[in-house]
Design goal:
12 strands; alpha/beta; 44% helix; Rossmann fold; ten-stranded mixed sheet
Length: 325
């Protein structure tokens, strides 16, 4: 199956390069997409250069289960084992591709990313026999119609030029009844949205090094706020979309006013990369829960599991089923 799929991809204008199947030439007309892939390539080079990725990867394995409705890793293993082909859409440095591949050696994982990070993935996990590494646009894949059983698009859909078109591509490559794990950023309070949108619209004035340094300062701010150990009953301000209630000072500021991520378990460098992940991309759509559900419904998917929190909306969806209420 792996050889047949690789052969098909090679007929679509792709070539082999350092363990990766990539297009012979790039599409220079999609400047915003190129800016996005450059940001993520820079991010993953810095992240992979960090001394200890184990705490970060442990965090994301646990969060993946929560985001997509798996009670534990055994439930995910059982699900993955029932899939013949998985597309990891927006694979970054390949950690989740390798994780999914390890859960079922008989399942083929197509690890796809537009950024140069896919070469890091091939370098780190090239010895994993049931992975194909592809550098390409997840909204325009070289995969045949109905060739994929499960699309995992974790924390990536909102960074594509046209999320609806990306979902249409997922629908094309999925078998009928195939599954998709999807995640998007949630809209925040009005002050936070205004700041985020203002920054994104003018971020071209800053290069990646400047944004990385800014992200370090924001991480330090988040850590300082958390280390106050203040937990207060904040007021709701519905006119501004500000959500109060009992919470830490850091969380109140983070969700309502400014992205200043800090997670002690993940550590400083990984927290910096999370802030960079927000500020560096030129495309970062946010959705209300209703908007997310409508987007997925219009693409012909139905939900088998929905998850929503202040940071995001996610769920497991099936091609061809009606959306649950």
């Amino acid at each position: 199956m792996k050889q047949e799929l690789e052969a098909h991809i090679l007929t679509k204008g792709y070539m082999r390069d350092s363990g990766v199947l990539c297009l012979n030439k790039s599409d220079g007309s999609r400047s915003r997409l190129q800016a996005n892939q450059s940001a993520f390539g820079e991010k993953w080079k810095k992240v992979v250069g960090h001394d200890d990725l184990a705490p970060v990867e442990a965090f994301h394995r646990a969060w993946y289960l929560k985001l997509y409705g798996f009670s534990d890793e055994e439930a995910l293993r059982s699900f993955v084992a029932r899939q013949k082909v998985i597309l990891d859409a927006g694979a970054g440095y390949g950690f989740k591709s390798a994780y999914l591949a390890s859960l079922s050696p008989d399942t083929l994982v197509v690890s796809m990313d537009l950024s140069e990070s896919i070469y890091l993935a091939a370098e780190r996990y090239g010895d994993v026999k049931n992975i194909i590494f592809v550098r390409g646009d997840i909204a325009s894949t070289p995969l045949p119609d109905g060739s994929v059983d499960f699309v995992s698009c974790d924390q990536v859909l909102h960074h594509t030029i046209d999320p609806a078109a990306t979902l249409a591509e997922f629908s094309r490559v999925l078998v009928h009844g195939g599954h998709a794990a999807l995640y998007v950023y949630a809209k925040k309070a009005l002050p936070r949205e205004l700041l985020d949108e203002h920054f994104i619209s003018g971020r071209a004035q800053l290069d990646h090094d400047a944004i990385w340094q800014m992200s370090r300062k924001l991480t330090e701010l988040g850590r300082m706020l958390e280390e106050t150990n203040l937990e207060l009953d904040f007021p709701d301000i519905p006119e501004l979309g500000v959500t109060g209630g009992r919470q830490s000072l850091q969380r109140f500021v983070y969700y309502n006013f400014i992205k200043c991520f800090w997670n002690e378990d993940m550590g400083f460098d990984a927290s910096v990369s999370t802030n960079f992940d927000w500020y560096a991309p030129s495309i970062a759509y946010r959705f209300s829960q209703d908007e997310f559900e409508e987007l997925v419904r219009n693409a012909g998917f139905g939900a088998t599991y929905l998850h929503s929190e202040k940071a995001c909306h996610s769920g497991m969806f099936t091609k061809g089923d009606a959306l649950t209420n």
